[in-house]
Amino acid sequence: MIEDSAPSVAKMPLWRRVLPAGLGAGLVLFVLSRVDLPTFYATLRSTHYVVFVVFSLVFTLALLGADTWATVWVYRRTVCPVKSREFFLVRGASYLPAVLNHHLGQGWVTYFMAKMYGAPLWRVAGATLVVYATTFACVVGLGVVAVVLAGPTLPWLPPLVGAVVVAGLLYLAVLRFFPGVLRRRQATAVLAELGPLGHLEAVLRRFPHVLVQFLGTWAAFWFFDIRVPPTAAFAFIPVVMMLATLPITPAGVGTRDVLSVEFFAAFAPGAAGEREATVAACTLTWITSLVLLQALLGPFFMRATRRLLERSARSPQPRSP
Fold it and tell me: How many domains does the chain divide into?
């Protein structure tokens, strides 16, 4: 069964399984303890949930499609001749474990692709590293835009983005002049094989995916009358995007809310406590709608990928060249 192929968390100690959820709940309670609760509840009651859920569904499907377009190219170049329709279903199925943790979902995809296509697990893991690296590069690209727009108003941003850009250039130098260093390990050998030009094409293909994520996060605030200007959006939303994917809390619950209240409360209507309450209502509604959609769509995609696995067992897929 497909569920058995996913990386299991059952062997983890109970405290490690409970800690992220407990930390996320604690951070949410911390945020709610600082806001004006009547405004928070009033904002929730006044939200047009039908429109917001439709928006969340369109965002989820657009994000899935853009992710598929970018990732399929990486797998085809480095692992196996995967079909876009098949990977669309596999990536959609990974949304179920991703509800607990973004990286758990990526691990599920890695394991499943190796099993379905008979490819070496280490090689698929290397392709996943390319996905991570190019996604991070696109987010840093948004940070560069923020430096241009924000200028001296965000003194912490230029050094941070500059350091990451330098690290990226060093990585490209290793790819170009010292690929043998990466070839010493099986997973990183894929990085060397793809080379600088391959990475550049992967970044260009990944950018629509990151752009959809960025625009969707930005647009969600407007549903709650939070008018985040472009400078603040480019400066802070990429930070929220990156930190929300860290394996700290399930689906970034809590971490996303703490950061958003800190970054975006100034752009919400009302007094100080009311502004923070509006931002908290927005971020909690946003993540709740996304998680519910993932939980509803995930089983459908899981059944579809189970059929894919059964079909591949009867007719083995061609391996990578």
Answer: 1
User: Does a structural domain hold residue 43?
Assistant: yes
Q: Alpha-carbon Rg of the chain, whole angstroms?
A: 21
Examine the pLDDT at 318 and tell me if it is beyond 80. Answer: no
Within a domain: residue 42?
yes
Answer positive or negative: Cα dihedral of 149, 151, 156, 161: positive
d(Cα 179, Cα 199) in Å, to the nearest integer? 13
pLDDT in tens, 236-266: 888 888 777 666 777 778 888 998 998 999 9
Is 97 domain-assigned?
yes
Alpha helices in the chain (DSSP H): 2-5, 14-34, 37-46, 49-78, 84-93, 95-100, 102-117, 121-150, 157-177, 179-183, 186-222, 230-244, 255-264, 272-314
Residue 5: which pLDDT band, with cuts at 50, 70 and 90? very low
In a domain, 155, yes or no: no
**What is the domain extent for residue 65?**
19-118+206-312
